[in-house]
């Protein structure tokens, strides 16, 4: 069963594999030869560590043969061997064969609790933890030789090391034994956590649900009991009929245990000292340069059978072998056709992190909609993000690059699924108030684009408010990045809505209308939020053209929500965005504003025609305020670009209307024409180039010459320069040009 067995070794019986896995003398023989092969490459540190190999073997032999209760203070041999185990464990980790020996002696009650505690705290794996060592440990729990303190410490160790155990089949067979320990109030929270990690569909039974409900009635609404009941309800909702709280911050306490930091330190030390690549903690690949917890879980664990067995099974096909009690091992999953054939009996790996990097497993999550798999993945993500966030756990950001890779992996998985993880949303809500805006900026803002519409009532206080504080106090480029992320967020919400529409029938029920109402409210909140921060940002950044580009990109999505995404909502940009775009000196921005106004008109006309053509009034319709704002902006644009009377006709409260006496004091000649298509600062360069081509002999460059027929020629010249948005706006909103276009 050892994962390090060579594929060239003859196939042996299962009994022989198990015997060799726990045979200490066999392990000594196996660990000697590889050391000799690396002698010429080892560093002085490695040679010094290897000098302790014999001492570790002696220590394990001592603990394997100890019989009577020994006093730590009076026995120097015990002190020496205990110190050896601790030293080697903290320096480079323990080999797989050492765990059964040390767990047996720690849980057998032969030694004092002080010694047992030190032994359990020294159980740091160098690679993997054999499953059979856990099975024998559970048998000692059933005997009850050790104290409750040691039992609790063992369960905490088991929870921490769960992902380092090579296989889980035999451990899952002990589900009933673990469930029995729920009656112990001290062990109950930790046993619930272990059961939460082990539970499969076949483990959910009515008598277990009744037992949990009895415990809940006795202890009250404890989070660990709610966790197990919630998981049971996902598997069999017809059996768990009680209502459970939908919002729980954390089911299990994320306490600081003595092993996590040691695992990281051991792994890092082994990587630095090893002249050859070390195998993954839980993978089959032979290269690893990362040190953090999540990276050791990104590879599907090896099978409980050797490679020859796997190859034979793959040739035969495992579809026929799958029944109600057998699962298809994910390490054999190689193609999409295999996924389709075995989707009914596929079992997810214990290392849920490996799902993020496996497209086939992501396909499974997307197609099967397995709530238990989603729950397990969300739980793992929430724990890992909370433990490893570089700006939350410590000021030391040595692992920031690796954390960036982890966040990038999560984002890629969300893009694949076209859906965000709820645990990532909770992480963003908790960490944004603590974020400095620079650490992992790109990755965090990418995750922002997949926030869901859940908890809409809290999104302002948990998301918009902390993001606004960062937005206003950060650089121009950060503001642009945030706006782009919010545009992608809006687009993801709208795309999700169109997908939901495709899956719904024509007859929409009350629940669907409620969902649509929630979407409309959420989208309106987002658009209004972006409008407020955009207007303020333009003031702070002196109407930056780069910033205006990202703002207009956002409103290019907003202006087409009705026709392109079938969402009954349109919101006009605030005056603090519209007028800076109208008076900009950048022709690209002005052209985009013209296109946005054209699309607003198209959507509003379509909505009005749809409203008038229905016999039954629709539940959602545009307010008269939207039409009024559009008309005000339209008057301002036509007054500026065409009729040259914006200062007189603009009726918007924050518009361009000014007193004539004030305008005369500016000493600007023909101030009324200052923003038409000839004199507009964004288009004046085109006007000069047009005059140079139309009247080459004229050296005065008098712009007043552009009138009459030359005005129409000038329009065609502007259209030829790629100002398509200006063309669409003029031809759709100005009657004179519309008639000319129609006559042509």
Automatic annotation (TrEMBL):
Keyword match rRNA processing: no
Chief site of localization: nucleus
Segments of skewed composition (Polar residues): 39-54
Gene Ontology terms describing biological process: CENP-A containing chromatin assembly; mitotic sister chromatid segregation
UniProt GO cellular component terms: inner kinetochore; nucleus
Record's keyword terms, sorted: Centromere, Chromosome, Nucleus
Protein location: Chromosome, Centromere; Nucleus
Pfam families membership: CENP-I
Stretches for region Disordered: 1-54
Annotated family: Belongs to the CENP-I/CTF3 family.
Protein name (Swiss-Prot/TrEMBL): CENPI protein
């Amino acid at each position: 069963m050892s994962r390090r067995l060579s594929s060239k070794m003859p196939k042996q019986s299962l009994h022989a594999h198990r015997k060799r896995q726990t045979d200490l003398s066999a392990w000594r023989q196996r660990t000697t030869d590889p050391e000799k092969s690396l002698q010429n490459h080892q560093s002085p540190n490695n040679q010094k560590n290897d000098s302790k190999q014999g001492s570790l073997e002696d220590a394990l032999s001592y603990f394997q043969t100890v019989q009577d209760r020994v006093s730590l203070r009076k026995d120097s041999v015990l002190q020496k061997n205990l110190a050896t185990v601790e030293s080697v464990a903290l320096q480079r980790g323990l080999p797989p064969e050492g765990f059964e020996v040390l767990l047996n002696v720690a849980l057998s009650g032969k030694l004092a609790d002080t010694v047992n505690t030190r032994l359990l705290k020294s159980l740091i794996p160098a690679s993997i933890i054999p499953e059979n060592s856990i099975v024998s440990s559970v048998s000692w729990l059933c005997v009850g030789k050790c104290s409750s303190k040691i039992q609790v410490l063992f369960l905490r160790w088991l929870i921490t090391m769960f992902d380092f155990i090579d296989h889980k089949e035999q451990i899952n067979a002990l589900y009933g034994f673990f469930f029995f320990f729920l009656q112990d109030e001290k062990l109950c929270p930790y046993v619930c956590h272990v059961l939460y990690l082990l539970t499969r569909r076949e483990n959910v039974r009515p008598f277990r649900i009744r037992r949990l409900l009895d415990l809940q009635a006795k202890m009250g609404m404890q989070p660990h009991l709610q966790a197990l009941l919630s998981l049971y309800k996902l598997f069999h909702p017809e059996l768990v009929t009680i209502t459970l709280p939908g919002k729980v911050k954390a089911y299990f306490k994320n306490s600081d245990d003595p092993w996590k930091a040691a695992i990281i330190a051991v792994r890092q030390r082994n990587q630095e000292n090893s002249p050859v690549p070390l195998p993954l903690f839980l993978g089959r690949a032979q290269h690893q340069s990362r040190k953090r917890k999540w990276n050791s879980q990104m590879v599907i664990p090896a099978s409980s059978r050797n490679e020859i067995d796997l190859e034979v099974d793959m040739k035969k096909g495992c579809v026929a072998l799958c029944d109600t009690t057998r699962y298809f091992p994910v390490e054999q999953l190689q193609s999409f056709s295999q996924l389709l054939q075995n989707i009914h009996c596929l079992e997810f790996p214990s290392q849920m992190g490996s799902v993020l990097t496996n497209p086939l497993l992501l396909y499974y999550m997307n197609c099967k909609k397995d709530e238990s798999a989603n729950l397990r993945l969300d739980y793992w993500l929430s724990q890992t993000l909370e433990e490893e966030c570089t700006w939350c756990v410590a000021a030391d950001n040595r692992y920031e690059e690796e954390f960036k890779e982890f966040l990038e992996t999560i984002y890629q998985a969300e893009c694949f699924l076209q859906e965000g993880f709820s645990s990532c949303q909770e992480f963003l809500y908790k960490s944004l108030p603590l974020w400095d805006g620079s650490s992992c900026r790109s990755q965090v803002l990418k995750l922002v684009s997949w926030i869901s519409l859940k908890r809409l009532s809290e999104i302002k206080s948990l998301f918009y408010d902390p993001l606004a504080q960062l937005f206003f106090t950060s650089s121009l480029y950060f503001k642009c990045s945030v706006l782009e992320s919010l545009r992608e967020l809006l687009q993801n919400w709208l795309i999700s809505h169109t997908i939901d529409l495709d899956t719904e029938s024509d007859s929409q029920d009350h629940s669907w209308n409620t969902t649509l109402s929630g979407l409309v409210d959420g989208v309106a909140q987002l658009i209004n939020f972006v409008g407020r921060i955009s207007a303020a940002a333009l003031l702070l950044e002196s109407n930056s053209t780069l910033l205006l580009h990202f703002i207009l990109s956002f409103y290019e999505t907003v202006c087409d929500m009705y026709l392109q995404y079938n969402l009954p909502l349109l919101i006009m940009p605030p005056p603090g965005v519209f007028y800076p775009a109208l008076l900009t000196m950048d022709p690209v921005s002005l052209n985009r504003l013209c296109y946005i106004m054209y699309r607003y008109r198209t959507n509003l006309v379509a909505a009005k025609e749809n409203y008038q053509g229905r016999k039954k009034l629709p539940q959602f319709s545009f307010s008269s305020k939207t039409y009024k704002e559009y008309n005000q902006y339209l008057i301002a644009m036509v007054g500026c670009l065409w009729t040259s009377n914006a200062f007189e006709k603009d009726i918007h409260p924050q518009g361009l209307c000014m007193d004539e006496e004030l305008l005369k004091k500016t000493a600007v000649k023909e101030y009324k024409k200052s923003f038409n298509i000839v004199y507009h600062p964004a288009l004046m360069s085109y006007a000069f180039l047009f005059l140079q081509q139309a009247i080459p002999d004229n050296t005065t460059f008098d712009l007043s010459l552009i009138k009459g027929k030359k005005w129409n020629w000038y329009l065609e010249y502007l259209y030829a320069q790629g100002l398509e948005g200006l063309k669409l706006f003029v031809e759709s909103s100005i009657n004179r040009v519309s008639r000319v276009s129609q006559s042509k």
